Amino acid sequence: MLSTRQRAALLITCLVVVAGGAGYAIALATSWHGSYGGYGKGGSSNSAYGSYANPGKRNRSGAGAGAGTGSGFSDSALATSIGKRIGLRLQGQAPAYLSTSQAAALAGQAPAGATVNKAADSITFTGTKVSFVVVSVLPGGADMTFRVAGLTNPAIVVPQGAQVTVRFINADPDQGHGWLVTSEQPPFQFGQSKVPSISGAYAPLIGDPTSTGDGTETITFTAAAAGSYQYICPVPGHAQMGMHGTFTVR
Ligand SMILES: [Cu+2]
User: Fold this and answer.
1) Helix (H, G, I), strand (E, B), or coil: what is residue 49?
2) Which residues is 80 bridged to in the sheet?
3) Ligand 1 geometric centre to CA of 21 (Å)
4) pTM over 0.90, yes/no
5) pLDDT tens-digit readout, 143-195
6) Cα(146) to centroid of ligand 1, in Å?
7) What is the DSSP annotation of 197-243?
8) Who surrounds ion ligand 1 at CB < 5 A?
9) Residue 205, Cα to own-chain centre: how many angstroms?
């Protein structure tokens, strides 16, 4: 029997891109194996995001930092549309909620035992226990970015073998987002990795805020293998639009 976490981690997105004369037609099917709604409201698995036709939008650059340099399909309108659907579908299903002001405070808080270098936009941990808060799309901040310790998409460095605890909060009012560590490197494609390269390094997608506040969850994993990774949002097109930063294990 898979745990809620394991089931939620099995996010499979299939992108079928068909080149047409005027542009691309995209059939997009996203499904959660088991029930993503293992967070309490089961039964939302195997959702299909339907079909989209986007004539004339070939290889268009996405908006935001780090966007648009990939050779893959890029469509920020489609990426935003998918995020909206996920946001609505998963609204109210996060394991816990906190107020928007609490989320904003946590987004600016420096993690214990870390060196936060604002100029270099980096956070370096040296201890074997690493813990930090990641907030996606903080109101008032840049769209399609992560906020950690007051920095936007900072480089995060952790020692090899460290136990890493990540509290993920989705503060975006109208988009679903997640947080995942991958060995894939930018430029990202529209449909980048949905499977973490470090076991357990995946905070499953959280939907829109509710009247109670922003959805939050906490994950823990071991940074076993040294390497240069990226943390990304696994929603198609979101990493391409700027939701990524370096995650170094050394
Ligand atoms: Cu996202």
Assistant:
1) strand
2) none
3) 30
4) no
5) 999 999 999 999 999 999 999 999 999 999 999 999 999 999 999 999 888 89
6) 9
7) SSTT-EEEEE---BTTBEEEEEEEEE--S-EEEEEE--STTTTTTT-
8) 177, 233, 235, 238
9) 7
